[in-house]
Every structure is written in structure tokens, then in C-alpha cells.
Amino acid sequence: MRSTQRAAILITLAVTALAAVTVVTAAAAPASSDHAMAHRAKGCITVTATIRVRGPEPLGVAADPKTNTIYVANTGGNTVSVISGRTNTVTATIHVGHGPDGVAVDPKTHTIYVTNIFSDTVSVISGRTNTVTATIRAGRSPSGVAVDPKTHTIYVANAGGNTVSVINGRTNAVTATIHVGTDPGGVAADPKTHTIYVTNVEDETVSVISGRTNTVTATIRAGFEPFGVAVDSKSNAVYVANEGDGTVSVISGRTSTVTATIRVGDVLGIAADAKTHTIYVTNSDHNAVSVISGRTNTVTATIRVGRSPDRVAVNPKTHTIYVTNAVGSTVSVLARCPK
Prior knowledge:
By secondary structure, the protein is mainly beta. Helix content is 5%, strand content 55%.
């Protein structure tokens, strides 16, 4: 399994059943001097709110851009927190399986998919009713999850089984199981090309899967312990966070080759805003988020967030960023600096 902070969290949760904390509504966090100094002159981004969720250990996060709703998997509480992007408040708490880890949203159907790493299942949530409508048996220790909204297909990385489960979003049935590398963790889908990218933590590779044939078409060597993966569908670029060596590998979706390696520091979760060609990477050991320009492949800002930031998601309509902080049970909201 993956190293350092993330492995420690999952081991602790497997041994001890932790009590969930009470939901507290969001409180706006005033920007500190560190936030204000985050490259204010150009493309300034700062923390605009800190939201307390039902935890402990919020990890996976995803946004529905059409409803401006954010979904957070609280791994230690076996729940999903529903956050309004308009008010930055928790509006609902949904009970799911044991050890919810990854979250993905189909914005066309307003359906949320949550992997339960200790239950070997995927919880299907209706965004209209905030209820679990189905529970799907996946592979062993399902972790990362991604949706192709054009085909309504869900892809689940089964870390314990070295496979990817393919789920039909219309029928909630597993239609294929694809063998990939060892300890697959992160998964991302490009809806333009119907290509899926899976990080194999132990193999230090990325498996490229055709969504049309459900076959692995390429295996790409990444950095040490690749985990997070994100796609910029407009530039056809793929970004992989290599936890073990603190780098981000940039992959061309056209050639399936690494075109650049960006030195960041400690990295884990990653997300891309395709409209601005901006990439956001969590720095778990430094309690920060690194901002990368997809045009220059350089780090343009480093923003302090909560303790042990894990995963990150972007609402492409509002260009707002949501970061889960595993220690402290909070979500940091990042947006453009006020003028």
C-alpha cells in the first residue's frame, strides 16, 4: 500500500473504530500573511473559508459543477459530507460503507460514487435526495474512482486486487475487470478521448486504458510511488503526483510519454482546471497546496491550508478549489484573491 501519512491513516482506521465528530457549519478563515503572499501580483489564489466536516480523516473529494455541491469522504467516520459551494456549509451527512476513500461525480446525472476501501464496495448516492441508492461489489480495497460523464461509465482502482472495475452507471453493474499494475491507487478519465489513466503505486507506472475496448493500451514509467492523477482534457495532458520523490510527471495523452517532470516537494492529491490549465497539488507534509501552470510546467504559488492536506478537487465553473485536511477534519476552500 502507499507510504507515509496515507498508509498510517488507513492502518489506524483498520484497527480502531473511531467515533464521528459533530458537524459544525463553515466559518470563513481570514487570509493570513502566508495566504496573502501567495503570488498576489498575478493569478492570486487564497484560502477563503475553512469548513469542518464529519470525520475523522476526510480524504476523497469531488465537485458537481452544475449544482455547485461538494462531496467529501470521511474515511474515519464512514460518511460523506455534502457541502454547498454557495454558502460553504455542510448541508447533509450520508452514511456509506466502511472506510470511504475515493469520490467521483457524474455531473449529467448528479450521481456520486464513493469507494469503501474496507468494505470492497462502491456506494452510489443520488445528488437529488442525498441518499444511497445502490451498493456495488467492486474488487479488493477499492481506492480511486473516476467517471466518464459522456458514457456514464465508472472506473474503480482496486488497490488490493491490482485491477480496475468498470461499472455501467445506468445499471450499476460491473461490466468488466481490467488487470493493471501493482497497488493501483489513483484513476482519472478523459471524456474527450474516453481514455483512463491509473497509477500503480508499487510498480511506479501508469496504466493507460481504452474506454472503448476496456484494454490496457500502454504502460508509462512515472516517478516513485505515483498516486494522484488528473487530466486536462483541453490540452490532452495528464498529471501524476509521485508521492515518493516529490515530483509531478507530465504525460502527453497523444503519445503516452512523459514530457516533463516538475519538482514540487511532498505531493499526494492532484486536480486540474482545464479551463485555466492550472494544476493543484497537495503537499501533505508542509500543510500546503502547490499551484502549477500547465502552460509553463512551473510552480507559480504555494498556499498554506489545513493540517495534512490529502486530496483536492476543482469546480471548473467557479474555479474554486477544495482541499481535504486529514488532521483536523476540515476542508480548505481556495479561490481568487478579492480585488
